[in-house]
Structure formats: C-alpha cells, structure tokens
Amino acid sequence: MPLLEVKNLKKYFPVRKGFFSKSHHWIKAVDDISFSVEEGETLGLVGESGCGKTTAGRCILRLIEPTAGKIFFEGKNILDFKSKEMRALRTKMQIVFQDPFASLNPRRVVLDLVGEGLLEHKLVKNTLEQKEKVAELLKRVGLSPDILYKYPHEFSGGQRQRIAIARALSLGPSLIVCDEPVSALDVSIQAQIINLLTDLQEEMKLAYIFIAHDLSVVKHISKRIAVMYLGQIVESAPSDELFEFPLHPYTKALLSSIPVPDPEIKKQRVIVKGELTQVMDREKGCVFAPRCPISDKECFERKIEELYVNSRHYVKCIKEGGIDYE
Amino acid sequence: MNLLNIENLTVTFSSVEASIKAVDDVSFGIGNSEVVGLVGESGCGKTVTALSILRLLPCPPAEIKAKGIFWKGRNLLKASIEEMHSIRGNEISIIFQEPLSSFNPVQKVGKQIQEILEVHNKKIENGEAYEKVIQMLSHVGIQNPEWAFESYPHELSGGMRQRAMIAMALMNGPELLIADEPTTALDVTIQAQILDLLEKLQKERHLSILMITHNLGIVARIANRVVVMYAGKVVEDSPVKPLFKEPLHPYTQGLLKSIPNPEKKQRLYAIPGMIPDPANLPSGCTFHPRCPYVMDICKREFPPLNKVDDSRAVACWLY
Amino acid sequence: MLYFLKYVIKELELKLSPITLKRLERFRKNSLSYASFLILIVLYVVSLFADFIANDKPLVVFYKNKIYFPVLFFYPGDTFGLGKSDIPNYKELQKREPFREGSGNFMIFPPIPYGYNESLFFEGENPPTPPTLKNLLGTDDRGRDILTRLIYGYRISFSFALLITAAGMIIGVMIGALQGYYGGVLDISMQRFIEIISALPFLYIIIIISSSLGRSFWVLFLLFIMFDWIGISYFIRSEFYKLREMPFVEASRALGIGDGKIMFRHILPNALTPIITFLPFDLIGAIFSLSALDFLGFGLPPPAPSIGELIRQGMNNISSYWLSLFPAGFLFFILLLIAFVGEGVRSAFDPRDYHKME
Predict the structure, then answer these.
(1) Distance between CA atoms of B192 and A259, rounded to whole angstroms?
(2) For C63-73, what is each residue's pLDDT tens digit?
(3) Most buried in the list B56, B75, B263, C148, measured by CB within 10 Å?
(4) How many other β-carbons are positioned within 10 Å of the β-carbon of residue A89?
(5) pLDDT tens digits for B58-104?
C-alpha cells in the first residue's frame, strides 16, 4: 500500500466580483490530479510558476483546504480528519519551504525554531530533553550544536535551509514535502543540500514530494516525476524514462529549455509560444493547447484523458510524439 | 582597444560595525560586440561591480577606488555628473533582475520608455517618439505593442515586462548592455525566450553585453568570454569554450562539477565548506579553505591574476 | 488567566533579539530623543515622590524624644498634645509653645512646604498672588501654591495617561490581532463596529456621561479606554494580515502549533514596531485629552490637582499671567518632550536608510 495516495485532488479559487455576488468563475489552481508516493521514495513534482505544484503540496498537508478529492495517508483519508487527528498527523507529514530567509522567525533562536514542535507534541518531557534532542537533530543535518542560541540572520542561506530541515525532521515524519528547497540557494550549496536530503532519505526511510521547476535537480533525487501545467499533471513517468522518452510537448519543451553548461552543445529546442496565462473556467480541451507547437482544433475541443503508454508512464495528450524541432 | 576596461576596481562598504570590501582589485575588459559573462555566487561582488560602472552606488556608504573605469578611453570615475547622466541609458544601459521593481507602478509602461528617449533627445517630437517606442516594443517580441504601451507594469506578465525593460534599455542604441541576472526570476521556458531575444538583438546591433548570472548554462549559451568571481575577486578570465572544456581555477572546476546533469545520475559533487562572510575573509587566497589542491602559499598570499596564454588568465598558485 | 500570565513572562524573557538591540542603539544615538526620554523619566519618578517634595505635613517630627513621620502616617491630635479628635495642623503646631527654639522638638518640612490643597493667605493680598521667592510660581485663585499643584498634577495626569495607554494598547492589540489573523466575517463585522465607534464624538460623550454619572476616576478611565484602543488596532490588524502569510507561520501550523500560540509567539514579536512607534503619540493624546477635560471642568473631580484646571483658572484670571503661563508652558514642554521621543523611536525603527545618490 502506498504511503500517500492522492485521488482527484482539486483546489479552485473563486474569483469574486463584489461583496455579495456569488462566484461563478473559478481559477482552477489544482484541477483533478492523482498520484501516489511509496514509503521511502521520492516523487518529483515539476512545473513552472502558476502550474499549481505549490498549492498541491500545501493541500496535502492541509495548510490549504482542498476543494475536492481524497488524500489517503497510510490508508486513511485525511480530509475526513478532525482537529485532534490532524494534530497527530502533523508528526507524520512535514514541509520544507523555498525561502530560507522567510521560513525562520527572525525573532526566535534556533533552539525554539527547531524544538517548538517537540514540546508541543510532548515528544520531550522538559526543556533539558528538548535541548538534547535539538542538538542531535542539528548534528544530523550537518550543523554544530553550538548554534542553539543564535538567531536566523546570523546564518547563510544554506545553513538556514539545514535548520529548516532539522525542524521538519524534529517530529519524526515519514513524508516531507520539499517545496523548491534549493531554488533560492547558490549552485554550490544546492548540491550540498540535495546530498543531505538524499542521505537523510536513506537513513530514515523518508518519502519526499520534491517540488521544483528545475528538471535537472529533480532527476537526481526522484524516482518518479510528474510534470504539471496549469493545474493538471500532463505527464508522469519514472525519472529515467521521462528524460529518455518524454512524450508530452510541454515536457519536451521544458527539457529543451534547460541551459546546458556546455557551449559545444547546440540543443534542439522546442519552441513554446507565448506565456502562461491563467484561464478561468476552462472546461474542455487541453490545458497546453494555446501554446503547443503541434496543437490543432481537436486539441481545443476534446476532453483529454490520461493515456497509459506502459504501466508506469502516462501522458495527457492526444498527439504524443511527432514534434517538429526547430 | 576594449570598449570598456575596468582596472583595479575596489569597492568598500563602510558602516559603524565594519568595513567590507565587496569588490577587491577587479580588472577585466569588454570588447566590441562581445558578450562577457560575469559569473559567481551570491556575495561575490558581481552586482556591485556592475553598478560601479555606472556609478549607481550610494557613496557613502560605498567607496569606489580604482585605477579607472575606462569607457571608450574616458575614465568614468572622473566624469562629471552631467557626463554620467548622458551616458546612462544612452551609451550604457542596464537591466535588472526584477522588472517589476524597475518600473514605476503608477505610470504607464509606454510613457516610461518614451521618457528615456526624450531625456536623451531633447528635440524629438511626441508623435515620433511614440512611433519609435512602438517599433521597439514590437522588435523585442511583444505581440501587441500598442496595448503594452498603454498598460501599467503589473498588467504585463513577467516575460513581457522583461522584454519591455530590454526595449527601454535599447531605446537609445547603447553600445553596452549590462544585464544583471535578467532571467533568474523567470520560468525556464520564458528564460529561453528572453535569451533568444538577447542573442538576436546582440547580433543585429553589434551590442556588447555584460551578462551577470550564477547560471553557467546561460553563460555557455550566450557568452563569448567568461569572468569568474569569488568573494570579491576575479579568479578566472577566459573565452567560453576553453573554460568549459578545461576549467583552470579549482572554484570553476567545482562549480561545473556541482551542476546537476540530467544525463548522469550519481551523487552530486558539492564544493565543501561555505561562501565566506565578507566581513571575515580567509587569509591569503580566499578560496583556500574549500580548495582540494590547497598548498601552504595559498594560506598566506592571494595569487595575482596571471595570464596563462593569450586569452586566458587565472588567479591561482597552481599556475 | 494564570496560564496567560505565565506565557507573557516566558515570552518576554525572550532575551532582547539583536534586531531590538540595534534599534535601541540607534535611539540612543539620537541625542534629542534620548535626552527627552531621560528628562521625562526623571520628572516622572520625581513626581512619584511628590509627597516628599511638596507637602504641608513635615517629613519628620521629633517630639518628646520620639520620632514621627507625618508624611507617611496619620497621627491623631493627642499625639502632640491637642485634643483627641483634632487633626494636627503641623504648621500651626510649629508656631506653638512645644516647638519653639531650644525645646528639643523640631519638625523638618519638605523643600516646598505647601500641600496641594492648602490655601495660603497673605497679608493684604488676594489670591491669586504672583510668583515670589516663597511661591516660585505664584498661587492660584484659592491661594494654593502652583508649583506644588503642578508637581502633583503631573503625577496624576501622567499616571492616568500611562494607564489608559497601556490598557488601550492591550485591548487594541488583541482585537487587531484577531481581526488580522482570522480575517473574513470576523474582520469585516469588527471593522464596521469600529467605524461606528470612531464616528462618535469622544469629548461630548465623556461630558455627557460625566455630568450624568458624576465625575469619577473609574468612569473617566473606562470611557477613555473605550475609544483609545481603536487607533492601534488598525496597525496591528494590517501587520497580522501581512505576517500570517509568512512561511514561518505556515511552518508552525505544519508543526501543529495552535492559533493562539502562533499569534502570540510568532506574529506578535514581529509586529512590535507599530506598537512602540504608536505609543508615545497615544500618550500625548491621552494627556492632552485629560487636560482638555479638566479645562472644561469634566475631568477628574476636585480637589484633584490638574494642569487643565489651572489653565482654566488662568483663563478666568487673565491678568494673573502666572496662572496661564506656567501650567500651559509646562504642558507644552512635556508634550514636546514626548513628541521628541516619539520621533526618535520612529526613526530608530525605520528600516530604511536614505542616501544621496549622485
């Protein structure tokens, strides 16, 4: 049984026109996505800004309440949980945020930041135990226990992210949602943090949902990758397979847009037209059709279903394959 | 002769607590129609260097000392304020990372671009200026330039704003464009579009570009030459192909190795240690605590930037 | 309640964060504000000891080999040889037989030997009398020494204002926090309620209620608080709206921390800036309103000494310049000092440094 199973998750934001009018228009931030994560494995959730990956991550932790769908954690639908059960759930699912500068309260010291949850959930009996446990966690993430009484601004971005990871580990979760944890860091530090996350995963059998917009980073850490665009998963496959046999035009475009650090390689580029714009009330047709280089009338009309290429790889496109490279 | 020559630039920021050398004895040049990538991680001084060229740093708390910053032979550091005004936006332009904060949110985009034109061409007429702006907006790839002209900055998408900023920068036909991380805030696909645009414009107008970025992939794509900075100093200066084929400085080597390469799946190489605190720099070569080839002399003295051959220079005791 | 207090103490023991320390430094550097701040503190502390500085009761009485402290305790008349139910008038007593020179009994009076309610009569002059060496600022229309009344009056108005400001702040912060954190219907309805209250004319209401319920300390106190909290609630509401979106708040929610703790522990410490910058100006408003009420005759009940009342007398006896000049001047001086402090605090907390660009 998978650790986490998301079924038909939807999050719609109403567009209000005035105080009393009932909304008939919705922004479909997350539009019917389903995926699962096995214990100890990583699912990469990739897409550009506005695709809904961040919203989806928050919904899984119920930091945002989904509009519809089911989220099964260890077999139980957490959307049915009342507050007491939710509290218990907090010890099992955690999150690491993108901005290491904003995710730590500037007026609290490291001991409080990392140890807050421990006291709250009574995982330690007193402040002495709390100190010990926090020191242990800090060592685990590669920081010295001397920093207990320092403030966040005394640290660099990479160190702060480590503190945030220590905080996420404090309650002993089995799943951590990593929301673009390295996007705000320098290249040399990114590698350190990714290595840390991989090591922790092995040691503690952690499952990750790794949200990112950089495909190359995601490949290193994920077993499976799901590509999102405008609230839908347009392609999902094991990571090697996604890179070797991308099917959806958007995936191909993403892959080809990554600047490769080698001036010799002149990549074959898939040209994507225009820009991502939120469309309200889109009922039929493919989400990507307006920008797709190979879209035609049918793409705008038909209801697009998931097409399973093999047992682990599906794509939401009626024309997979056959793109003109430029 | 180089279009722009920075010689021995040092920029110090003083506050009550400390004096920090953000840029330490930096020298490099940009030639005609040349794209130079200024690469480094946060805190290495690349943005400060760029801002010093146009003297956009508030002094105090900044203090600029240099042999000179020579633009077409003239030392910009000795130029008068009027001279600087006539160079900015006219001969040298700059675009920034966050187009939203570069535009005045309460003025229409078109008006702001037109203003640049009018400031440097006092005699131009309203109608003619309008035409020129529309032309430029269309040239940078904005589909509906008239609509963009009448819009406010927040009404445009990120990519369009960046294009508008590029249009504004190129209005007066500058010879040098300084681009400070212009694509960092954009999505990957839009980034690719903007880079395409810059490439196109560069070829058409024989523009020199100083492209500041931390992304080596961008540099590989668009730059002719690369200057690598670390903790305020230049550590390597080389044409782009040899840099990637055979990086000389251990920092450059480390950077290249730590880029996740989708082709290979293995444990990422991470340069050990951290970027030093500018108030507390290591002695000698600032990179020595993290260098796999560290020697005794590295701890004592910072190596000078030495020419390795015609086109390449490195600051490392290995050479 | 106990739980809440325990909280406050623990959280305040939040050793001053470096951000706060830096701001204190900046405040200290601003000599005008720092000096004003010190002067205000000194004046207030001094005024707290008003009883020892200006009093018609002596500090110490040495009588028949025993020491008495009339300034602290009340002694019935028979202690000093008067009738049992007489209230000793120490000044009179001093003129009498037991206390003449050489008897071994003496009294030590405070430096300003007048009570705030003691009417002084001078030969051939009607009150109010102009400043003399004995009455440095003159006397008021009942012959009471003005300097004494100013000292006591300052004590009362400042204390009262501090009390009002503190209570108003606490209420305003709580309500603003709830509004900003929960938003939605709670916020909207509370806003409408606030708008209605703000539309009420403060001074008139106090006048009306004072005149019907009678003038008393508590009535005044409650009425002031009812209006005072609104100002700060606006600021706190917007700070909370802004801060609740911050990732570190989300992180705490993800850890399972409850709303109350998040508001108090995480958001509030980051929302202190408007509180501290607003405080001095709130204080000024309170002192000024109180003086205005006293001036109109609706403030604290007599014979409470107050600056406003003195100014009123000044208005009624316009030719006695000392009745207007000194109280009004003193009030002006105090409010000016507070304003300096307020300015200093505001610029110390201002995150931006403006530099000249060339």
Answers:
(1) 8
(2) 777 888 877 87
(3) C148
(4) 18
(5) 877 788 888 888 898 888 888 888 888 888 888 999 998 888 888 99
Q: Which two tokens stand for residue C250?
A: 């989300």
Cα(C135)–Cα(B21) distance, integer angstroms: 65
Cα gap B134→A209, rounded to integer Å: 46
Instruction: Evaluate if residue C191 carries a pLDDT over 90.
Output: yes
CA-based nearest residue to C62, from C97, C108, C109, C101: C108
Peptide bond into A293 cis (omega under 30): no
Classified as helix, coil or strand, B59 is coil
Place of tokens 């991380």: B181
Alpha-carbon distance C225 to C229, whole Å? 6
Residues of C in contact with A120 (CB under 8 A): 255-257, 261
Q: Domain C147-356 belongs to what topology? A: MetI-like fold (1.10.3720)
Q: What is the pLDDT of residues A110-137, one digit of tens each?
A: 999 999 999 889 888 888 999 999 999 9
Q: Show which residues on chain A lie within 8 Å of chain B, measured between beta carbons.
A: 48-49, 156-159, 186-192, 194-195, 198, 213-217, 219-220, 240, 243, 253-264, 269, 272, 274-277
Report whether B298 contacts B285 (CB < 8 A): yes
Phi and psi for A290 in degrees, rounded to 5? -60, -25
**Are the C-beta atoms of residues C119 and C144 closer than 8 Å to each other?**
yes
Lowest mean pLDDT among A77-81, B61-65, C93-97, C288-292: C93-97
| Closest residue to C254, CB basis, from A63, A98, A106 | A63
Distances (CA, A) of C67 to A46, A280, C92, C104, C224: 88, 90, 19, 12, 44
Residues in chain C: 358
Query: In this predicted structure, what is the pLDDT of residue A326?
Result: 40
Residue C320: predicted pLDDT: 80
Q: How far apart are CA C13 and CA C2, in angstroms?
A: 17
Q: pTM of the full predicted structure?
A: 0.83
CA angle C184, C187, C188 (to 5 degrees): 85
Report residue C327's pLDDT band, with 50, 70 and 90 as the boundaries: confident
Q: Do C270 and A107 touch (CB under 8 A)?
A: yes
B42, B189, B220 member nearest A186 (Cβ): B42
- What average pLDDT does the structure give for chain C? 83
Report which residue type is found at C94: Q
Contact C98, C83 (CB under 8 A): no
Residue among B159, B221, B262 minimizing CB distance to A215: B262
pLDDT at C181 over 90: yes
Secondary structure (DSSP) of C159-174: HHHHHHHHHHHHHHHH
Amino acid C358: pLDDT = 41
Q: Which amino acid is at B278?
A: P
Supply A134's token pair: 């926090």
Q: Which residue has the tokens 């500090």?
A: C59
Q: Which of B55, B58, B81 sits opposite C355 (nearest CB)?
A: B58
Q: State the DSSP code for B252.
A: H
Q: Average per-residue pLDDT in chain B?
A: 87
Please count the residue pairs, one from chain B and one from chain C, whose beta carbons lie less than 8 angstroms apart.
10
CB within 8 Å: A220 and B215: no
Say which range, A240-244, B186-190, B239-243, has the weakest mean pLDDT: B186-190
- As beta bridge partners, residue A30 has A11
In chain B, the percentage of residues whose pLDDT exceeds 70 is 98
Q: How far apart are CA C119 and CA C111, in angstroms?
A: 18
Closest-CA residue to C310 (of C134, C149, C148, C132): C149
Kindly state the DSSP code that residue B63 receives in the 8-state scheme: E
Per the listing, tokens 């206390």 go with: C99
Whether ipTM > 0.95 holds is no
Give B81's contacts in chain C (Cβ within 8 Å): 358
